[in-house]
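Following up on my earlier message about flavin-adenine dinucleotide. Here are the inputs again, as you asked, copied directly from the submission form:
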Amino acid sequence: MALPDPTALVLGAGPAGLGAAALLARAGARVTCLDPRTGPEQAAAQAEHVHILPPDPGPPLRKAAPELAAALSGAAAPDWHYLRLPEGAARTGPFLSRDAAETALHAAATAAGVTFDYGVRPRALAHDTQFEVAFQDGARRADILVDATGAHRWVADALDALGAQLWLDEIAAPGRYCTWSGALPPEAPRRHAMLWQPPDAEASIYLIARADRRLYVTWRGAGAPEASTGPELAEALSRHGLGAMAEIAAAAGPLARIGYVAPPPRLLGMERPGDPLLPAWFTIGDALVQTPPRFGFGMASVFLQLAELASVLDGGPPEPSLLAAAVRERLAAMAEGVWLQAGVLSVA
Ligand SMILES: Cc1cc2nc3c(=O)[nH]c(=O)nc-3n(C[C@H](O)[C@H](O)[C@H](O)COP(=O)(O)OP(=O)(O)OC[C@H]3O[C@@H](n4cnc5c(N)ncnc54)[C@H](O)[C@@H]3O)c2cc1C
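Thanks, got it. Here's what our run produced:
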């Protein structure tokens, strides 16, 4: 990079922000990562809603950033039981939860020299040759600004206000969800994940029995029952032939039930991608592309983006603005690929 020691400010300490911070620090930047959460121990909103994904973060990340991939693989819990229904192909093996992924990425970023500042919320963005982000108690300047604020897209909104002409492409396919959560008794099976996704995919149902004895069942699509206890939910699951899920759900007591409509998948783009007046910035993670909410896809998309970032940082132009433009271009192309893979876009 042209500056001996460029400073980078990463907004958001979710999986994308932690991974980006680690990679930028590895490439020689002085990185600070900020998050309004009180600390890494305060779960992000969706961490409570457990994420399960296979322990291998994927060949691209293994190749581009072996240390991050190794940290993630090492964080996988060894004894999850995963069952895909109705094929019934049971698989027992290590799975990685979002909490574990975040802990591993936080450790990797700390080891790479990243400084963390939790409990701060940015208020305003300005720039001259650097960005300046204002907070309640002052401001920070940086040569490189990274938006990793997830669906909040704080930087994108702030840049829009500065006239960067960003666009947000929405696909009108919001998902209807119903999630039940409750406690399981000590003798109930733990670390079970089961997914039922019929080929016509109008509805999909998944169950997760966590190590901490929390049960989550999510029903995507129409026809969710009104169940408010484990046995009531078990009865509805049995009616769909989901005996293995019903057996676990039956052990739960009262259930909390939330119905919600998830936002449609979104992709961020720019009208003027090479705006020379803006200092270096890029967007990564859900802030860039939100995939259709499918089991295991969001985090997989984050890992693919981190792999792209790692490879640009390894061989990209040294000047921060050129480097950031190269990152934006590569990540935007990749994001479209994610949509194609997820079946939301089709090739004309
Ligand atoms: C209910 C639900 C279930 C999901 N289930 C799965 C699953 O099973 N498997 C899977 O792979 N994916 C799943 N996903 C998707 C997955 O959670 C996301 O793809 C992933 O968390 C994206 O990581 P991220 O770091 O981009 O964003 P986030 O994880 O959203 O992190 C963003 C961070 O930015 C911080 N932040 C917010 N505003 C600001 C601000 N103004 N300044 C600074 N920081 C800010 C937040 O506090 C947060 O820590 C699920 C998502 C949801 C909502």
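One observation from looking it over: Residues 3 and 319 are 7 Å apart (CA to CA). Hope that helps, and feel free to reply on this thread.
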